[in-house]
Amino acid sequence: MANTVGGAAELISLEPNAMIEASRRVTGLSDFGERIDGDWRGRLEGLVASLDAEADLNVMGRLQVRQEILRCLQSRLYLTKKITDQPEIVNEEIIEPLIITGTGRSGTSITLELLSQDADSLAPIAWKAFHPTDDLGDEETLLRLTECEQDLWLDVCPQMAAIHELRSDIPDECIGVQKPSFGGMLWWVLHDVQTFPMDPEAAMKYQKVVMQLMQYEHRKKHASKNVPHWVLKTPTYLPMLDLVFSMYPDAWIILNHRDPLKTVPSGVSTFAATRYMRSDREGSEQLLELAGNARNDMMMDVYRRRQAGELPERFIDLHFSDLMSDPVKALEGVYRQSGKPFSQDYRHAITEYLAQKPKGKHGKHRYLPEDWGMNTETLEKQAEAYMQSYQVEKES
User: Fold this and answer.
1) What are phi and psi of 81, to 5 degrees?
2) Between 3.40.50.150, 3.40.50.300, 3.20.20.80, 3.50.50.60, what CATH number should domain 2-390 receive?
């Protein structure tokens, strides 16, 4: 249908001013919270310019992006009103968060889910990450509103269910929380936007306010309990650890490790499935460039800086093989290193959660290096220093 009227851009507009005015009209609000993270409008305009010029979005892609931008704009308006009405929210202190990072596809998601089973933890549950305030309804309503977005992903690309579980009631990755800043990494993950002006600092500032709101509401609801520790996750923290420590000096960084012969082709496969939903462009060559040796290089840079004492001694190395063979023991080690109590209730919660989530529940994610034009011997050579330095177990 788009081709009958001049293309997808003619059918579905991403004009920033129109979306901004629509958000003001729908919410009845006008303050988008520039004091939270700076020039959000400039970042939005840069994002849209990059999407229009480079992403080659199809109709479905433009529909998804338009909905996401509108949701993000309205979330900003509601969040700003909340902290204006209750300014004490931004005084909440985030103490000793556990921050999971490492290479993508190395078990970071299941680590986040399992750590969030501790009753003494807080994590950005997806429905709360999508809709931080209750302006659109109660928890049941917000769960349903969040689920519809994720269901659409699976309708367009059913194999996503086997790659990455999408549910409203499990923790969301930090780049999802950062999305309304229009400076976060998720916009780049989902689209081929080479000139998109990412702003990690702005993205993390926005995320922190969302966390402060969630913690404030949690403390009000559970007045007799101690302040919980946060559990956060995204592999995109890996190249910005200095920024992470500047915002959370007492954070514990959980560094996930897995054989790159598994993570690299799995990561490229995930990129391909995600971007397929929004663009008809064949992106194999660019995806291959993204894989390259960048992951190993980043992990080795962290290793060298740790050895040189340039980073705080607040790292916990978590190996995928250990997590899979005995998750309770592996996470007990994380708690021991971070000085947090590992209760019997939490031990039981891990076991119960895994019983409800057997491996392969939604099918098997199949991938091979050769599927993406990669050479196994080359990948092994590129990964050699990383595997040896961190003593990563080779998978069959």
Assistant:
1) -60, -40
2) 3.40.50.300
